Model the fold of this input.
Amino acid sequence: MAMTLDEVMYAVHNRQFRVIADVHLLLIADGKVLLGQRANTGYGDGAYHPPAGYLEAGESVVEALIRQARDEIGITIQLKDVSFAHVMHNSSEDGEIALFFAVTTWAGEPVTMQPHKCSELRWIPLHELPPNMIDYTRVAVRHYMEGRAFSAYPALRTGENTSVGLIGG
Done:
């Protein structure tokens, strides 16, 4: 059944904006974080980025993180070993809610499971993030290290600090 012009106009003007949610794994050992060098993706190729991906329908953010860890770097993570690290509203481009989780215990040795998308994995000291790292992830890792639970990227045009510390932190 076809919509009338009024119905089409109502639908177009009353559509709610929806953001995409993605999850990022901060796999941490001995003061270092595991980063992959992007390749052949068309976005930030050659730059470093933590293992990450989008949610699938019906999947929780932690389930998505555990799946991404298995699919991208071949490790097994238990739910009890996942800790919230940071959430960022990334309003650049199409806008995303980027959820970062820290993991310090896992099973298996991280390897590149998708060499067509990731040319190498490298353990990088948290205080020496590479200059060729996807910028919003660098900002999020820095906020995580400072105990900041939330940030907006890019920063608000007012110049205000857009990060929020952890409760009691």
